Amino acid sequence: MNLLLREALIAFRRTRTLSVLSITTIAFALFVTGLFGLVALNMRSALRNVAERVEIVAFVYRGTPSMQLTAASSDIAAFPEVLEVQYVSEEEALVRARRDLVEFQEAYQDLEINPLPPSLEIRLRPEYRDAKHAGDVAERLHGFEFVEDVRYGRDWVERLDALRQIAGFVGLAIGAAFGLVSIVIIGVTIRMTVLHRAREIRIMRLVGATDWFIRGPFLLEGALKGLIGGILAAILCGVVFGAFEAGNFGLGMGLTFFGPLEVVFLIVFGVLLGLTGSLVSVGRHLKKV
Amino acid sequence: MIRFTKVSKHYPTGTTPALDDVNFHVARGEFVFMTGHSGAGKSSILKLMYGDERPSSGDVRVSGFHIGTLTRDEVPRLRRRLGIVFQDFSLLEDRTAAENIAFALEVTGSRVDMIPARVTKVLAQVGLLAKAEAFPRELSGGEQQRVSIARALVNDPPILLADEPTGNLDERATRGVYQLLLDINAQGTVVVMATHNLDLVRFGGQRTLELRDGKLVFDSGVDVGDDA
Ligand SMILES: Nc1ncnc2c1ncn2[C@@H]1O[C@H](COP(=O)(O)OP(=O)(O)OP(=O)(O)O)[C@@H](O)[C@H]1O
Ligand SMILES: [Mg+2]
Question: By three-state DSSP, how is residue A58 classified?
């Protein structure tokens, strides 16, 4: 083990430029991947926040017996898409209107008759907060005879859908492109390192080193590079994130950074990249000698 | 120790065979010169011996290994029973003489605490104890070759293969290396040395195998014993 580490460090020192190049490549690739991860993470939580507000309101004919409404409520609550159903009576609607619509406070203050209908407010489960499911549920609500009208802000729910799709697609495409490019570059730098050390590998084989003995230092070297690259990437992500948060671009909401698990994942990913890169390039070389 | 039986070697790109029906036997304790014009097949024979190439037909046996059916795992085990020396010395540039020799022990998984004593012993044997901490670039060609011989010896191999070990050396250094190989042979190690240096061959009076166009055309030796 001692020997392995020493050989890996010697290799590192000898091909310093190449080593620095591969670490930089891994760090940069993971940094970009990390940034997209952060953007995706925050986009997702932002969209989740917005989607929280996807709500279906079924206005009910005045005078519908509350017995009937209670029964219907539990039927609706049993829809697979539905998270909860809340009955809002005429009085409650008025109280809310007085509280929320400040501009009309006066108007609502001294009304003889309540102009607001009672309603059922339906919240969907998170995974169903999109145009299709909201539309489905609205459709079914129309089927109840006591329902006068259903509203769910179709326009912006549809826009939310589109946004989600674009975000997912762009994230995926750019992430995949960068991932691919970084794997290729890492492969090339490690291949160069191996070619650089072809003579040494030949000598090792001549004096009777096994394939695994020859691979060992290269694998360790690759893993070390990946480790350093991954840590650098995590630090870079943290720095950029910090700067962004301090800049406070008036997003009006808190930003999320990776949890410890995701940071570990980023670093482990780096180690795997380094390890795979060296395994492939050394393996290829060994086949020839 | 070494036995070639009806050995032929065709390289994929070659039009004529590099070796053609070669038969010989090297017994325990022998010193053998391998001579012949450039391209005659000397290096090919040595490569077969250390398992870098496989015979196209015929049988090659070295120290109990069948080269024709050698698996990838067996190659390191064969190499540990051989010392190999080349014209270009094949030393690692960024390691001292002692480190280069120690490397051959480390690579084969020797006990760490045994390494310094064994390195010192072979350095003394090749007369380079004083240069233990020198890097290859700080050594003359003859000295570098002696380091590489020391490395070949450090695992106590029963066979030492040398492919033109004196090719890059002047006459004096050549004699030095030759004498060293004779000393090693005197201690019981089989030595097979490919060389262009006919003076050395004539002067030495050792057994000589001569190749011409891949054929063994002359063998001064008489087979003794049968221990291949
Ligand atoms: N890897 C190879 N691929 C194709 N042909 C080869 C290969 N190695 C050797 N040969 C051919 O085999 C023949 C014998 O080559 P070899 O190297 O054994 O000769 P040699 O006696 O060692 O020559 P020299 O004295 O120049 O070192 C030559 O014709 C050479 O071109
Ligand atoms: Mg040759």
Answer: strand
* A140 and A244 fall within a common domain: no
Q: Whose CA is nearest to atom 25 of ligand 1?
A: B38
CA distance B180 to B224: 24
Amino acid at B33: F
Query: Do A117 and A191 belong together in one domain?
Result: no
- Are residue A176 and residue A225 in the same domain, yes or no? yes
Residue A136: which domain range?
55-151
How far apart CA B34 and CA B4 sit, in angstroms, is 14
The Cα B101–Cα B122 span in angstroms is 9
ipTM value, please give it.
0.84
- Judged by CB atoms closer than 8 Å, whether chains meet at B76 and A204 is answered as no
Query: Which B-chain residues 77-96 have CB contacts (< 8 A) with chain A?
Result: 77-80, 84, 90, 92, 94
The reported pTM is: 0.71
Q: What is the C-alpha separation between A125 and B205, in angstroms, rounded?
A: 96
Identify whether residues A142 and A122 lie together within a single domain: yes
A42 and A62 inside one domain: no
Q: Which of A98, A129, A151 is the last residue of a domain?
A: A151
Select the residue of B77, B94, B151 nearest A207 (Cβ to Cβ). Answer: B151
For chain A, what is the domain count?
A: 2
- Contacts made by residues A136-145, CB under 8 angstroms, sequence distance 24+: A136/A81, A137/A56, A137/A79, A137/A81, A137/A82, A138/A56, A140/A79, A141/A56, A141/A58, A141/A76, A144/A58, A144/A72
* Ligand 1: centre distance to CA B58 (Å): 19
Q: Name the residue facing B107 among A2, A199, A209 (closest C-beta).
A: A209
Confidence of residue B88 (pLDDT cuts 50, 70, 90): very high
**Residue environment code for A75-112, b if the CB has 16+ CB neighbours within 10 A, otherwise e:** ebeebebbeebeebbbeebeeebbeeeeeeeeebeeee
- Ranges of residues in chain A whose predicted pLDDT is under 50: none
